[in-house]
Amino acid sequence: MANTNEYERDRADSKIGKIIVDRDLCIAAAACIAVSGSTFEFDNENKAVVIDANAADDETLTMACESCPTKAICLMGKDGSKVYPK
Amino acid sequence: MQNYTYLIIGGGVAGTTAAETIRQLDAEGSIGIISDEMCRLYSRVMLSKPAFFLERIPFDTVWLKTEQWYVEKKVELLCGKRATGLDGSAKMLTLDDGSTLGYEKLLIATGGTVRYWDIEGANKKGIHYLRTLEHGKAIISGIKTAKKAVTIGGGVISFEMAELLKMAGLEVTMIIREEHYWSPVLDDASGKMIEDTLTKSGISIIPNAEVEKILGEESVTGVVLKDGRTVECDMVICGIGIVCMQDWFKQAGLSVNRGILANEYLETNLPDVWTAGDIAEYNDIILEEQVQLGNWVNAREQGVTAGQNMAGGHEPFHFVSFYTTQGLGINIAFVGDVCPKPDRTYIKRGSPETGSYGRLIVVGDELVGATLMNRTQELTAIASLIKNNVKVTGKETELGDPNFDLKTLIPAPAPAPDLRTA
Predict the structure, then answer these.
(1) B279 to chain A nearest CA, in Å?
(2) Do the Cβ atoms of B333 and A28 come within 8 Å?
């Protein structure tokens, strides 16, 4: 079983419905936090967690996920499709 | 001669992020990236991570851009080529195949190459380095038959590789020149925490040691230390640093020190020439000094700033850098400027005995950096304190209390956490 955390997103102006962080892949590089610290933060186990799934617009959120050097963050569309990584 | 509006030397994360940023701002200007590797952007960071290294996730996870991405973004990737000369007044770059390329704006994001061992026998089979995808592939292949490995160097490569080699079932010995791990960036107490963790995992550490000679015919069979001891091994991972400087930088008239010197806009002394990533020694306006850093997040963020400025912007690079690594259940983080210099004072948080130990680095009345052992979660708060130039004089007691919430010192309204924007 993948060790993942899922976060629902319900921004009206967004096509993204869910943020999924794979805790096994996360290495705390903090690239996501550098791009969108209003969305991501570290927890006490030094893993990235989402503190506000609606904080960033789609462009910033996608950029934050793309910046991850281990592809630990996955974005799902509101229609259930995979937005990132493709 | 082919001409580019934007020419980028270096296909790593700094150069590629700059190209991506430029394309967001300029839909039409031609963009070329010159890379001395034979492939598109991949995750250098992933090369030393267990999931990838032990082949628990597909190899293709390493690619960060698809080939299609370069086509869609109209970014021309020129693989397997090196720059060898630059004529800044003619705005012309010479490549190793003798061809020349013209540019309107140039970015030098050449990163670094591994420092190769220059001791006797260093060309034997079984001696590995880790910087490129090809290096990674060679090690992944090598561990399948190797039994005993030696790592050289007391830094991140040794630390991460030792864990991986151990996980792969090899016997591992680390040889470090210093008395303690990651000295002098970490203090002895932090270094000892790492050593205890390594030792408990069954990894042997030989401190204060240097290799004099490598044994073996065609393949390595052992190393001889300067004190005469011999360590048997059939694999060596050598992590003794990287080299950033290239001969042509100086010949081109670029101002250099340890890296290429740049101002806070990442502009070099030559007109329309920027620099970013590991090679850039830039004016850090937060730390108020010239800084050169070698890490992924920093390179990516500089790629954004350089790209924006090449496309007509004029924004300073305003970012508190950080670096993290983890292995064998220990998390290590460096924030800001961690160089040990005489004007630094240190406030300790927690203790090695409790397994959670940080050092806040103070110059005058402000924080400039921190080293954190199993306290990575404080990284963003510390970066905010550094970025906001929060005065810490008189708050030493609170800062020294491991349970004190550092976020409460961030000036209101809580500016956290977008570290990039002010």
Answers:
(1) 19
(2) yes
> CB–CB of B416 and A37 under 8 A?
yes
Indicate the residue of A25, A38, A42 with minimum beta-carbon distance to B379: A42
Q: pLDDT 10s digit of each residue in chain B, 422 long?
A: 899 999 999 999 999 999 999 999 999 999 999 999 999 999 999 998 888 888 888 899 999 999 999 999 999 999 999 999 999 999 999 999 999 999 999 999 999 999 999 998 999 999 999 999 999 999 999 999 999 999 999 888 999 999 999 999 999 999 999 998 888 899 999 999 999 999 999 999 999 999 999 999 999 999 999 999 999 999 999 999 999 999 999 999 999 999 999 999 999 999 999 999 999 999 999 988 899 988 899 999 999 999 999 999 999 999 998 989 988 889 999 999 998 889 999 999 999 999 999 999 999 999 999 999 999 999 999 999 999 999 999 999 999 999 999 999 998 765 555 665 54
Q: Do domains B2-60+67-113+248-310 and B127-238 have the same CATH topology?
A: yes
The 3-state DSSP composition of chain A as helix, strand, coil percent (nearest 5) reads 15, 30, 55
Per the structure block, which two tokens stand in for A62?
A: 């996608």
C-beta of residue B286 within 8 angstroms of C-beta of residue B387:
yes
Instruction: Kindly state whether A38 is in contact with chain B, defined as any CB-CB distance less than 8 angstroms.
Output: yes
Q: Touching check for A52 and chain B: CB below 8 Å? A: no
Shortest Cα distance, chain A CAs vs residue B292, angstroms:
18
**What ipTM is given for this predicted complex?**
0.90
CATH of domain B322-409: 3.30.390.30
**Is B45 in contact with A36 (Cβ distance < 8 A)?**
no
Q: In the CATH scheme, what is the homologous superfamily, with its name and number, of domain B127-238?
A: FAD/NAD(P)-binding domain (3.50.50.60)
Q: What CATH topology corresponds to B2-60+67-113+248-310? A: FAD/NAD(P)-binding domain (3.50.50)
Interface mutation target, options A25, A45, A84, chain B, most CBs of B under 10 Å: A25
- Measure the CA–CA gap between B15 and B18, rounded to whole angstroms: 5
Among B290, B262, B284, B285, which Cα is nearest to B275's? B262
10 Å CB burial of residue B117 (0-12, 13-18, 19+) is: middle
